[in-house]
């Protein structure tokens, strides 16, 4: 095994220990070269189980969090998925092989351009990204089988609930924005209403409404 392969192997073993047991999710994470999504000063940590800065005050999530969110989302290969917060594009690259098509919204133009370039370079062709305020979702492409939000809000943005199919699932961090009291929740839309299950204490950057001034 090359040193690079053994780092990936070690990371996957760590994810399994933290509860990522889904073989498809582990295979997807194992195939995405995380070092493509990381800035040069942090390359030595690309395969460590840590969140890392990606510019504009944002971060790419810890691989364990990416693994547990992806697993909770229970994505099927015929599904249409919406991601809010493209960031580096890493979570999108992990989801891409698991679904039919992924739509991803980012509010920072430079992050979006870099993410699109990385996805192109890795020949990932079923992800479409756009600049926008993801709290409004992507109405032209709705409804979605699955929605994943990678920035924290105090409440679920109503537009996202509207754009989720009946029987759809959504994973997002909810809670105290900028604080430490956040939880990842899995929301199932059912005929009886919403079933909301918290599953992990986390710390995400905030979901910010509107676009930054350029
Ligand atoms: N999924 C990303 C994680 C990025 S961190 C990855 O794998 O790298 C969260 C991202 O959400 C940041 O890039 C931030 O700019 C973006 N974001 C925050 N609020 C947003 C909003 N209202 N609409 C779209 N993107 C948003």
Verbal overview:
- The protein is an alpha/beta fold and 214 residues long.
- The protein has one domain: Vaccinia Virus protein VP39 (Rossmann fold), CATH 3.40.50.
- Helix content is 28%, strand content 28%.
- The protein has helices at residues 3-17, 23-31, 63-73, 90-95, 109-121, 158-162; strands at 52-55, 58-60, 80-84, 101-106, 127-131, 144-149, 164-175, 182-190, 193-202.
Primary descriptors:
single chain, 214 residues, Rossmann fold, seven-stranded mixed sheet, two-stranded antiparallel sheet, binds S-adenosyl-L-homocysteine
CATH class category name:
Alpha Beta
Query: Which superfamily, in CATH terms, is the homologous superfamily?
Result: Vaccinia Virus protein VP39
Structural class of the helix and strand makeup? alpha/beta
- Rg, please? 16 Å
CATH topology: Rossmann fold
Assembly type of the shown chains? single chain
Which hetero compounds are present in the coordinates? S-adenosyl-L-homocysteine
The total count of helices amounts to: 6
Overall, the morphology is globular
């Amino acid at each position: 095994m090359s040193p690079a392969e053994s780092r990936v192997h070690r990371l996957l073993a760590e994810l399994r220990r933290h509860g990522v047991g889904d073989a498809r999710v582990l295979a997807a994470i194992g195939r995405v070269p995380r070092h493509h999504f990381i800035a040069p000063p942090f390359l030595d940590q690309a395969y460590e189980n840590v969140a890392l800065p990606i510019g504009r005050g944002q971060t790419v999530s810890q691989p364990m969090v990416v693994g547990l969110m992806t697993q909770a989302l229970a994505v099927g290969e015929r599904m249409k998925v919406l991601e809010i917060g493209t960031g580096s594009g890493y979570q999108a690259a992990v989801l891409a092989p698991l679904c039919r098509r992924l739509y991803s919204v980012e509010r920072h133009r430079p992050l979006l351009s870099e993410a699109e370039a990385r996805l192109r370079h890795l020949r990932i062709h079923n992800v479409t990204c756009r600049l926008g305020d993801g709290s409004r979702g992507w109405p032209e492409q709705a409804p979605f089988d699955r929605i994943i939000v990678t920035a924290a809000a105090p409440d679920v943005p109503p537009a996202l609930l509207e754009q989720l199919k009946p029987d759809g699932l959504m994973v997002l961090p909810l809670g105290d924005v900028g604080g430490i009291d956040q939880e990842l929740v899995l929301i199932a839309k059912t005929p009886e209403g919403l079933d909301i299950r918290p599953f992990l204490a986390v710390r995400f950057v905030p979901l910010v409404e509107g676009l930054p001034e350029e």
